[in-house]
Structure formats: structure tokens, C-alpha cells
From TrEMBL:
GO terms for molecular function: hydrolase activity. Keywords: Hydrolase. The lineage of its organism: Bacteria, Pseudomonadati, Bacteroidota, Cytophagia, Cytophagales. It comes from Spirosoma liriopis. The keyword Ligase does not apply. This is Alpha/beta hydrolase. Pfam families: Abhydrolase_1. InterPro entries: AB_hydrolase_1 (IPR000073), AB_hydrolase_fold (IPR029058), AB_hydrolase_sf (IPR050266). Residues 22-243 form the AB hydrolase-1 domain.
């Protein structure tokens, strides 16, 4: 379904029901589809909502409006529009930073954050040459294929590989450029003292995009309620590479909500 929020239309996947809602957000160059297998395993207990962020997947792609705070505004409006009262935000990579920004506002009803390899609240350590490769390779299948190889470590099916590539290629240019040139460089670390809820982080040991030491050095010093666990042999795309392990992690971390 498509929901109009904050001046744009966002594509939303929904399944399941329950008093607690799990709100899933995706990585840079991804879509809500990465969460489908996880949601399938959780929908018998929880209402599950997965969102294509603006400019990604099947959501609208305005020319401007891709700051971390604008994406957080989108999510706040969406949560209100869907009448969500009690929820856990589940972010991945880029959207981990969005989740942290929203949590710092201390919105009513937000119980916990569960973050997979989140982008840190300080500027993300993307090497300049890698940033340029990504900018120059936009929209090219060969570049999307190389990115897929770079950000996965565990074996995934051919169908999943094709979906990862397809999501990369359908990301809009305004969203693509804005994250690489602006959003990933934003510093929201001064707000992290206002994140008062538990933050549970999970990361693959073989994550080459945001390795475990990024969490230790650039997230934990700022987010005082955060803990980190690792998944052996997995890369950056845990929802695709290790959905069962990720589902168990989420269940464990939200069991007392």
C-alpha cells in the first residue's frame, strides 16, 4: 500500500497483528523487500510494517528532501498515519541513523531500537575513492553487481542476488547522491544523549561496509544504552544473508516489551 506522508507517498508492506508493532527500515540502495523473510517469521505475534524510504523501492522520489531529519519526519508521520501506538524501530545501515535521529526526539510509544549494522551518528567512514565509485556507478548493472559482492559474505540464492541488484538500480538518483554527499556525512552525535531507550545492535563479522569496530568506535561512545552482538561469517546484509538468526535476535531483544 502507499501512504501519503510529509508531502510524499511511501510504499509500505504490512502483515500480522498484535499490540506491539515492528517498524522496519532498509539500507542505502535497498528496499522493504529485504525484510520479507523476517516479517514472515514474526507476523504471528506482531504487526509488521516495512517501508520503502523516499526515493527508494516503490516510494516517490522527490528532487529534494533526503536529509536524515527529513527521513525521520517521514517515519514519524507514517507511524501517526498508521495509528501505531506501541512500537520498536528496526533499522539497517543508512536507516539506523534515521532511527537514532527519531529516537532522540523521544516520541511517545517508541519502546526500543533494534539496529543491523547501523550508520553511526557521526559521519560514516566511507573512503573517498569508494564514495566516488558509487557516485559514478549509479544506475549501472556492473556497479550494482560489484556492490552486491562487496556487501555480502554469506551465500545467498540467485533470486536474492537479483533482488539486491534490482533494488540498487531502482533507487532514485536524488536519493542516491544525497546520501553519499550529505546524509552519510551528517553528525547527529550531540543528540544521542537524548536516546533514552535500549538500543540493540547486530553486525556481521565479515561486514566490509560497516565492520564491527565501527560500532565499537563510532556508535557505542555516543549511544549510552547500546549493546552489540556479532554474527559469524555474515556481511552487511543480515536480513538477506541470515534472516533466521536476525529474527531470533529481534525476538530476544523485544521479548520484554
Amino acid at each position: 500500500m502507499r501512504i501519503s506522508v510529509n508531502g510524499t507517498h511511501l510504499n509500505v508492506l504490512e502483515q500480522g497483528s498484535g499490540p506491539l508493532t515492528l517498524v522496519f527500515m532498509h539500507y542505502f540502495g535497498g528496499s522493504a523487500l529485504e525484510w520479507q523473510t523476517v516479517m514472515d517469521q514474526l507476523a504471528d505475534q506482531y504487526r509488521c510494517i516495512a517501508v520503502d524510504l523516499r526515493g527508494c523501492g516503490d516510494s516517490d522520489a522527490p528532487e529534494t528532501g533526503y536529509s536524515v531529519d527529513t527521513m525521520a519526519d517521514d517515519m514519524a508521520d507514517l507511524i501517526q498515519a498508521l495509528h501505531i501506538k506501541s512500537y520498536v524501530l528496526i533499522g539497517h545501515s543508512m536507516s539506523g541513523k534515521v532511527a537514532l535521529a527519531l529516537a532522540a526526539r523521544q516520541p511517545v510509544g517508541l519502546r526500543k531500537l533494534v539496529l543491523s549494522s547501523p550508520s553511526p551518528p557521526v559521519p560514516e567512514p566511507i573512503p573517498d575513492d569508494e564514495r566516488q565509485k558509487l557516485l559514478q556507478g549509479y544506475g549501472q548493472r556492473s556497479s550494482a553487481q560489484q556492490t552486491m559482492k562487496n556487501i555480502t559474505a554469506a551465500s545467498v540464492s540467485k533470486a536474492i542476488q537479483e533482488q539486491i541488484i534490482a533494488d540498487d538500480l531502482r533507487t532514485s538518483k536524488p536519493a542516491w547522491d544525497a546520501w553519499l554527499l550529505e546524509g552519510s556525512k551528517e553528525d547527529i552525535s550531540k543528540r544521542m544523549a537524548d536516546v533514552s531507550i535500549p538500543v540493540s545492535i547486530i553486525v556481521g563479522t565479515d561486514d566490509r561496509a560497516l565492520p564491527p569496530d565501527v560500532q565499537d568506535k563510532l556508535v557505542l561512545p555516543y549511544v549510552r544504552h547500546a549493546t552489540v552482538e556479532v554474527v559469524d561469517g555474515a556481511g552487511h546484509l543480515l536480513p538477506w544473508e541470515a534472516p533466521e538468526t536476525l529474527t531470533i535476535f529481534i525476538q530476544k531483544k523485544i521479548a520484554d516489551v
